Amino acid sequence: MEDRELRTLNHMLFMEHYTGGNAGLFMKMKRLVYSYQSPYQRIDIFEHPEFGMVLVLDGITMFTEADEFMYHEMLVHVPIFTHPDPKRVLIIGGGDGGSLREVLKHNSVEEAVLCEVDPYVIEASRKYLKEMSIELDNPRATLVNENGADYVRKFKDRFDVIVVDSTDPTAGEGGHLFTKEFYVNCYAALRKDGVFCAETEDPFYDKGWVAIAFNRISSVFPICRMYTSFMTTYPSGMWTYTIGSKTFDPIKDFDEERVLDFNAPLRYYNSEIHTAAFALPNFLRELTGQF
Amino acid sequence: MEDRELRTLNHMLFMEHYTGGNAGLFMKMKRLVYSYQSPYQRIDIFEHPEFGMVLVLDGITMFTEADEFMYHEMLVHVPIFTHPDPKRVLIIGGGDGGSLREVLKHNSVEEAVLCEVDPYVIEASRKYLKEMSIELDNPRATLVNENGADYVRKFKDRFDVIVVDSTDPTAGEGGHLFTKEFYVNCYAALRKDGVFCAETEDPFYDKGWVAIAFNRISSVFPICRMYTSFMTTYPSGMWTYTIGSKTFDPIKDFDEERVLDFNAPLRYYNSEIHTAAFALPNFLRELTGQF
């Protein structure tokens, strides 16, 4: 049996080609547990010998269980702690449930809507990604199967925080979530002091999209700031996020005390990281025009 | 000719297996320009279709020309700006010249000693890595071909700053530069207000070494702090560095004005990044015991 296991280990390799196609990450696959072509995208889940389960959409790594906390904590807690009293939160994408799990760590949140276009992602996550899907049945959560760009159009002055947990702009349905029209509709769906946050790609392989997303968001929201976090199995390990805000500044209006009083377990985010994440290296200052 | 070029591009692949062997980065090779087994290590230099030249020692990527600035600027400017008046700087390792180039951007530096054990790295860098080796003949630079652990033992109360630009602890001669004995000798070779800084690996694939290096350095220096930077083609993209200091605290004693007055071009480091880099995610706080 051990020999057979070893053969499997050595024979299956997942290779993600990064933008440009000239580099990428490879990961050994212990076993492929799920593989399905949904109406929206190809979904693969495999077990890695060290990183636990790995979710892949259209050939792009969404996360490994070993490092998903970096991405999900930083995508969610930075905008949530920017808003002084977030009650209604909308998550667009993120059908795996990782962002929802982080949102529901906040007791102030009364309603968290998860709008995922692809029901097969939710189904697969429930079955194979137990750490991700743990809050999908929380009574404070509402699951909606709809294109996020269409869904957000229905609301005016409704949400305190909108979090966009999308795939890449060039994969699956991700493209809809990087248009100016979408950002305008998010602005309208937010209450008068609402906070928007989106993942906005990596600035080494995909700097074009980083600049496009930032410029579009900053053309819609009066306060706009980019921040970064490590995300060790994403392209380049350097991930950007962009906050668009109507009233609250994520740095100047940040109340450190709320984080210090926060009881839920966090493995990445803390009050120092919140502010430090907005310090941009010079090449990112230039890319975004933020100094 | 174009067809031939394309064939080459598609057929040569560099694959770096990260610690554990279950994941890694692959890069296409446009052409291999240098490959040599020196007495110390295997040295390869190839041209990548996007990233320029790539230096590889014992199968481990030292840098690509596209992102080396992240590593070299953060390894050098954080300790140099921690010291108020760095005159004598010792670089251990770094035979490519990248760290030396950054050190010599500081006009206060009168003497920069580069101690590289492997003369073939220096020779190859002069020939193929023009952006790295640009300052190797600067009159303020002294090149020494010697094992850094042996060299540093000769000095007492000599240097203002020591920068350790080593290979991994498990590769080539890197292991000597991760011992407590070496850190003790660096302490002795530093002047009474000297500052030490070393690259201390990535905390995703190599967290064991991150903890070992930090604990050893903190057992020798009264002030010890870890910081991080992105380094997009290193394992996980998340790199750690550890400062050991006799007198000056890299955060409390940091003089932002000196950075604002600094004229040399920088693509990563700035005064906000200096302080922000010391904000550690929770899992790194736990790994190092720093809160």
From TrEMBL, chains A, B:
Name the SUPFAM superfamilies on file: S-adenosyl-L-methionine-dependent methyltransferases (SSF53335)
* CDD domains cross-referenced by the UniProt entry: AdoMet_MTases
For this protein, what is the EC number? 2.5.1.16
Question: Which keywords has UniProt assigned to this entry?
Answer: Polyamine biosynthesis, Spermidine biosynthesis, Transferase
Per its record, what are the GO molecular function terms?
spermidine synthase activity
Q: Which reaction does it catalyse?
A: S-adenosyl 3-(methylsulfanyl)propylamine + putrescine = S-methyl-5'-thioadenosine + spermidine + H(+)
Q: Which GO terms describe its biological process?
A: spermidine biosynthetic process
Cellular component per GO, a single term: cytosol
Domain PABS, by residue range, is 11-246
Main enzyme class: transferase
Pathway given in the UniProt record: Amine and polyamine biosynthesis; spermidine biosynthesis; spermidine from putrescine: step 1/1
Q: Where does S-methyl-5'-thioadenosine bind?
A: 41, 116, 147-148
From the record, what ranges are coiled-coil?
none
The protein's matches in Gene3D superfamilies, at most eight in alphabetical order, are given as: Spermidine synthase, tetramerisation domain, Vaccinia Virus protein VP39
Family listed:
Belongs to the spermidine/spermine synthase family.
Q: Which HAMAP family match?
A: Spermidine_synth
Protein's recorded name: Polyamine aminopropyltransferase
